[in-house]
Amino acid sequence: MGIAHYLKEIGRGKEGARSLSEEQARDLMDQVLDRQVSEAERGAFAIAMRIKGESTEELAGFTASAAARSLEIGSDAADRDAMPIVLPSYNGARKLPNLTALLALLLAQEGLPVLVHGPLGDPARVTTYELFKALGLPIAHDAADVRAAWARHEPVFMPTASLCPPLAALLDLRWQLGLRNPGHTVAKLLTPRGTPCLRVVNYTHPEYALSHARFLQHCGAHALLMRGTEGEPVADARRLPRLDVHIGGSLRPELGCAGTEGALLQLPLLPRVNDAASTAVYIQSVVSGETPLPGPLEEQVDVLLRAHRAMKLHEAHVHERSA
Fold this sequence. Notes:
alpha/beta, about 50% helix, Pyrimidine Nucleoside Phosphorylase, Chain A, domain 2, Transferase, Pyrimidine Nucleoside Phosphorylase, Chain A, domain 3, about 325 residues, 7-stranded mixed sheet
């Protein structure tokens, strides 16, 4: 079939490119993920969308395509009712300690099922996978592994290659092209198939705050939208970012909180280096109570607890209306 007719629309440069409909975007991504196109077409798609940027409808179509190919975690009603918090972790740490694993542990301590997904490694950054290994936390490769970790009240990490293998292959184009592609945006929005989830959606560049908010509204998603720490879904330990909660696609200001403004009066105690071993020791000291929990992370946990309760109420009402 080919995707040349789509490339003609999206590949006309930043000013001349035209956006696809949601249906067209899904068909395009279906073909890319299923490797029904040539390597030249895959590369052209990646570069064209990198230049153009995704519209709300395109992002919805791309994400729906990946979601249809993602792993289904729950196998019975009890599993589906778990409604996990999903932390997509795709950037890792370059300058600051990567505290995504700490956030996952804190949420699990509150009795919530937590799924973290992302790549195994990055030559220039400390990944969350490395932190999970250093902390001895579970790494899942199938749905049974995830459910077993949740039964033990532990957060669990799943490689992208296990959660959605076709998407992992698209992400790997980065190492050939030297640039990220739409697959990276999709990965940060990806949730397991077949169960309601509360996802933490983080952005690095401010312009993505509006585009991601439009996407969440368009898809009726449950999410905490925030500016991440070096692209990770965890609040900066030094300064609280704005935390916006969306339930069923609607912004719920009463559930979120405003970010810190003005000069910082005090900095939290953080490790001096950000390697996996040092960060793991720090995380263990916070979890054990030996080191104070940074205020921004405490606030993020509180917001996620409120959002999770609101999500469960929303889903219960949806179920009642459909019954």
